[in-house]
Batch of 4 targets.
Target 1
Amino acid sequence: MPDIAEMRLRRLEQLFIAFNQHDIAGVMACMTPDIEFDAAAGQEIFGHRFTGQDEVKAAFEKTWSDMPDVRWDSTHHTVFGDCGLSQWIFRATLRDDRRIEANGCDIFKFRDDLICAKSAFRKERPLLPIRS
C-alpha cells in the first residue's frame, strides 16, 4: 500500500489531469468539502478567496468559460508533509484572442489524501498579441 506522501503526489497528478480536461467532477473529487482556494489575483493580500466546494467549483468553471483553451503545462509536483507544491506554465487565450503565458505555482495543504487549501501564484506578464 502506498504511503501518504505517494497518495498525495498522485492526488496532485490527478488534479492537473482533470484541470486540463476541464473535468469539474474530477477536480472537485480531489478536494475536501471545506476547500479554500486563494486565486492569484484579487483585492486582498491573499488574492480572492473562494470557500467551499460550490464557490470553488464556480470559480474554476468561470475560468474555463472565460478561457476555453486554458491549460497548466509542464507540471512538476512535490509533496512534503501535509503540504504540496505544483509548478506549471499557465497558457490561455482570452475572448478577444489575446494570450496569457506565464510561469506559476500552487501551494497546497492536505487533510489525509484530499486537498483542503490551494493558493495560486502566477507571474504578472503583459498579454501576448493576437495570433495571426
Target 2
Amino acid sequence: MIKGLRGASIWSEDVKNLLPFYRDVLGLKVGFESPGFVVLGEPGAPALALGTHSEVHGRNADPARHIVGLATDDVRTDWKRLKAAGVEFIEDPTDYGNMRIATLKDPEGNLVQLLEPLKT
C-alpha cells in the first residue's frame, strides 16, 4: 500500500550547480553523498535528492511544473536571511489560511517554497 511521500529528486546537468545552494545557502544537511548524487535530510525522514542526469541540460524551462516544499518554523526570518544572501524570490511571505508561504528560485530556476504552518 502506498503510504505517502518518501522523497523527491531534482536533476541537473551537474549536481555541483545545485549542491552549494541547497547545502550552504538553504542550510539543508547532507545525509548521503556519492559522485553525481546527494541526499539531503535526516535519516528516516522524507528527503530531497539532487543528482546529475544525462538528459537534463541548462535551466528549468518550466519551473512551475514541480515545486519542492521545505518546512520552516519562521518563513519571514528565512526569507529575510535568504534575500540578504541574494536569493531570488518570486513570492514574498504570504498567508494562505493556515499556511504562510514564500517561493524562491534555485540556481537552475527550479521553484522552492518555504512553508510555515500557522496556528488557527
Target 3
Amino acid sequence: MNKDGCIFCQIASGELPAEKVYETARVVAFKDIRPQAPVHILVIPREHIETVNHIQPEHRELIGEMFLAAQEIAKKFGVADSGYRTVFNCNRDAGQDVYHLHLHVLAGRKMTWPPG
C-alpha cells in the first residue's frame, strides 16, 4: 500500500483520531486499538515507510529516534525498570497488518519466549 489511504499516515497527520502518548516532528506514538499487553503502544514515523525491508541508510537517525521514543514511553508508563519488549513485524507471515513501519512497545505483564 502506498501512503494514500494509509491509516497510520492519517493518524500521524491528525486526519484520524488516536490516543497519542508521544509526538515529535518525525515520530508519533499511540495506544494500539487491539492491545496484546496492558501497555501496548505503536511508535510510527511520520514518513511513510512500508516495512523494515524499505528502510534506507538515510533512515538511520529516524529509526534511532523511534527507539528513543520507546525508551521515553516505557519511562512514562512506569515499565522501564520492570521491562518492556520492542518489536518490528515485517510482512504478513510475521504478523504485519498495516504496511507503515511501526515499532510495538509491549509491557505490563511477563513476556514469554519464544513469542507467538
Target 4
Amino acid sequence: MRDDAEFKRHADDAIHSVYLALTAASDDYAYDVSYESGVLTVETKRPRARLVVDAHPAARQIRISSPSRSYKLDWDVVENEFLLSGTGENLKEAMEEALSRHLKEDVAL
C-alpha cells in the first residue's frame, strides 16, 4: 500500500462492507450492530459481549477485538483485500468465525 490515504480508503471500504453484511444478518442472530467514525461494533445479547472492528493505520491492519481472541488482518496486494495471517480468511470470514465462536452457532453473513 502506497500511503495512509490509500490504507484508509481500503480499510473504510472493507469495514463498511462487513457492516452491511452484519446488518442484513442481524435479524437471524442475537446481536446489534453499529458503525460510527470508522469503528464497527457488534453487541451480542446472549452471551453478552462486544466485538469491535477498526483500522490501525500505524500497523496498516484491520483488527477485530472479541472476548476470546484478537484478529489482525493485513492488506494482501494479490487478493486486493485484508486477510488474516495464517488462515487467509478475509474480513467477512474472520468476523463470521469470531461471531460463531462467541455465539456457539454457525454464523453466515
